[in-house]
Amino acid sequence: MSLYAKELEIAQLAVQRAAILTKRVFHEKAKGTVSKDDKSPVTIGDFGAQALIIAALKHNFPEDEIVAEEEAAQLQEDANLRSTIWDLVKGTSLSDASAEAVLGGAIKSEDDMLTFIDYGNSKGGAKGRIWAIDPIDGTKGFLRGGQYAVCLALMVDGDVKVGVLGCPNLPIDDAAPLSGSMESGQTDEGKGCLFSGVLGQGATSRPLTTGALASSQKISMKAIADIAAASFCESVEAGHSSHGDQAEIAKKLGITNPSVRMDSQAKYASIARGAGDIYLRLPVSATYQEKIWDHAAGDLIVREAGGAVTDIHGKRLDFSIGRTLANNKGVVAAPAGGHAQVLAVVQEVLGNK
Ligand SMILES: Nc1ncnc2c1ncn2[C@@H]1O[C@H](COP(=O)(O)O)[C@@H](O)[C@H]1OP(=O)(O)O
Ligand SMILES: [Mg+2]
Ligand SMILES: [Mg+2]
Ligand SMILES: [Mg+2]
């Protein structure tokens, strides 16, 4: 058995199960949205997916630590919200009985659900096995009917070893071109992709299913022959990554393709399979610290697909110092052969500010 084979299987099945829940919420009008202290939205889908993933991890790897985005505090004060989430969680299982059994089956009670959610409170760090979970990455995209991702990664001694991204609204077809409008229609037809990477073992994609894992194929980034023909992925939210700086960088590189805007780590997945070429996250605020769960899986999947990922200073993303990427600013992800050229222009443009 190859290194991390069990961790990979559990992570993929856990993401698949959580995505069944998020898809149900995605198609409902009422998404149980509440506002967090930082004013960002969180939904019943985020809480439910986090509970299901952590239950699967605790069943299989009880000693491991977990860094997850959400916490149960808000649910302690709101019995209605709590019971809506519990209804969702207890009604969600994989359609394949043996796969469901591998994850440990259903959560037993509403209280257990809250306990699982709060197991995600690890401080992170440079020692031991730590999972990073973003149950719904791109919650604003999820609410808007656009792209979002269910994200899970395993770090060992501060280094990401396994990364899994479930992207329910990306086309199954790795060769499907990035569409200028990544908004999702009403049906799930032709959509739903599960991306994985294991350090030193490459990156894959497979259709996201509701039961056992589908068969996978290797993915790789497109080599950049002519940078002027490249296409960019960027955030939809101008508050997450500067659209103005991005446009200036594109211009200097001679890129005329309009950049494709989509939410979440679906951007990392899209460039990893060659559907796009370059992903830049250009700091808007001097104080915002990126969170490890927003990058751990995507960073590994892109690097395993033949890419290079650094921050705007050219440093590798450092997942070893806690819940945030406090040592890094922004993200520059590109095919390994073109990364230096892109980084140089990023620094030229940002250096002038
Ligand atoms: N001010 C901010 N700057 C950068 N990223 C942010 C900011 N606020 C929230 N985020 C996080 O950015 C990610 C989505 O950004 P994008 O889709 O633009 O790449 C999400 O993880 C979102 O959290 P969340 O997981 O709560 O959606
Ligand atoms: Mg959030
Ligand atoms: Mg996120
Ligand atoms: Mg999130």
What's the layout of helices and strands?
Layout: H1 5-26, E1 34-35, E2 41-42, H2 44-60, E3 65-68, H3 73-76, H4 79-90, H5 97-102, H6 110-118, E4 129-137, H7 139-144, E5 149-156, E6 159-171, E7 191-198, E8 202-207, E9 217-218, E10 232-234, H8 243-253, E11 260-261, H9 266-272, E12 278-281, H10 296-304, E13 307-310, E14 331-335, H11 339-351
Residues 40, 42, 69, 139 line the site of one magnesium ion.
Question: Nutshell version of this structure?
Answer:
The chain is an alpha+beta fold. The protein is built from eleven helices and 14 strands.
Structure explained in plain terms:
- It comes from Xylaria hypoxylon.
- Converts adenosine 3'-phosphate 5'-phosphosulfate (PAPS) to adenosine 5'-phosphosulfate (APS) and 3'(2')-phosphoadenosine 5'-phosphate (PAP) to AMP.
- Helix content is 33%, strand content 20%.
- The chain is of the alpha+beta class.
- The chain folds into two domains: 214 residues, Fructose-1,6-Bisphosphatase, Chain A, domain 1, CATH 3.30.540.10; 125 residues, D-Maltodextrin-Binding Protein, domain 2 (3-Layer(aba) Sandwich).
- Helix 2 packs across helix 6, helix 8 crosses helix 11 and helix 9 runs parallel beside helix 10.
- The site of one magnesium ion has 4 residues, from loops.
Which CATH architecture of the largest domain is right? Answer: 2-Layer Sandwich
CATH topology of the largest domain: Fructose-1,6-Bisphosphatase, Chain A, domain 1
CATH uppermost class of the largest domain: Alpha Beta
Biggest sheet strand line-up: 3-4-5-6-7-8-9
How much helical structure, as a percent, in the residues? 25-40%
Task: Give the averaged pLDDT, no decimals.
Answer: 96
Class from secondary-structure proportions: alpha+beta
Rg, Å, rounded: 19 Å
Q: Into how many domains do the coordinates divide? A: 2
> Which word captures the global form?
globular
Distance between the termini: 51 Å
Helix tally equals: 11
Biggest sheet: strands, sense, closure? 7 strands, mixed
Elements, N to C (H/E): HEEHEHHHHEHEEEEEEHEHEHEEH
| Beta-strand content | 15-25%
User: Which distinct ligands sit in these coordinates?
Assistant: adenosine-2'-5'-diphosphate, magnesium ion
Fourth-level CATH superfamily of the largest domain: Fructose-1,6-Bisphosphatase, subunit A, domain 1
